[in-house]
Design a protein that fits this description.
By secondary structure, this protein is α+β, with helices and mostly antiparallel strands. The chain has eight helices and 23 strands. α4 packs across α8. The radius of gyration is 26 Å and the shape is elongated. GO terms for molecular function: RNA binding.
Amino acid sequence: MPKKRQALVEFEDMNGSGNAVTYANNNQIYIAGRPSYINYSTSQKISRPSNSDDTRSVNNVLLLTIMNPIYPITTDVLYTICNNCGPVQRIVIFRKNGVQAMSAQRAKASLNGADIYSGCCTLKIEYAKPTRLNVFKNDQDTWDYTNPSLSGQDPNANPNKRQRQPALLGDHPPEYGGPQGGYGHYDETYGPPPPPPHYEGRRMGPPMGRGRGGPRYGGAQYGHGPPAPEYSAHADSPVIMVYGLEPTKINADRVFNIFCLYGNVERVKFMKSKPGAAMVEMGDCYAVDRTISHLNNNMLFGQKLNVCVSKQQAIMPGQSYQLEDGSCSFKDFHGNRNNRFTTAEQAAKNRIQQPSNVLHFFNGPPDCTVEAFSQICDELGIKNPASVKLFTGKSERSSSGLLEWESVNDAMEALAMMNHYQMTNPSGPYPYTLKLCFSTAQHAN
């Protein structure tokens, strides 16, 4: 009751409420820094909306809402969590802004409020209206554990019959995320790019086509594909919401410079009604998964990024406006030559890497020097790298090397500002487009 600055708290029994009142009578209670008081209410129960938990009778079907699902949530993951509380018959997953799954009383009591993985994928559990779930196939979104023949797969693939890893409160799914190397153009002394990943001896699916100029190759077959079958890609929209952008220092090109490391960027649109927020349309849903798992909660220009899946299926241009630097709030990057997942060969060179304080650069002019990078950083108003390593003998047509900053935040800012910088070509009319990505190296030297 915000207007009265009061709230009702309903306990399971009188003992709980009595203990609260007794404690408050003997101790000063502070809520949000203000003295607060606890007394009995004249109400016997808290009235709830018609669709709330209290009006639903206790039954064998639960509605699970998973908040902050930065790791994929599948039937296998939910089975692992819930089966300890009692035999699971069926699971159906609804992929919304977050993840919801319907899978009863013991599970609700023991799992409500728990994190599936540390610090994320938090469970909110309430009783559902249906008393039975209808399942028509066994896959990552739906599974009938009473009828394993629905999938037509090898029975050994049934999560009910194979060894499971512990789920609740683990750090993260071991098959998902983690460093994957630097970039395909990396110098051979630091290791060649790995082949595209295979899982259980097979590739995990075709390239993801989206109808805007042919297929996109940021999916399972190329680069860092989706996780192993237990943790398949979960985003059902190619559009990302980004919050925490610094309005005075960010624009569409700088968003592109960071997000293009994880998939093709189609469009970027800033939201006038929400300063510091933008929508980014990626080339496919796998790119969304990669972007969220690698960029969410990282710092950029002193602000923590919140990166999540959008409800929108595409970005509509709409009415644009000027950002603080004078650039347009909307930009279409479809077909942009700096996208790095446009062909199978190009996409296979990408080695997806978590943000680090070391950047790998390539496609610089052949006579590139340490002083040149200092001049660029001064021009862009960013910190100079603490260390620079120039690779020699790789190519006479261009240069490559490593740039090390003191912190990941500094490297993120450099990536946003300096990626795709146009460097002067001393022997021709066309400049060199400097390209950057995160490196596997711990240090430049």
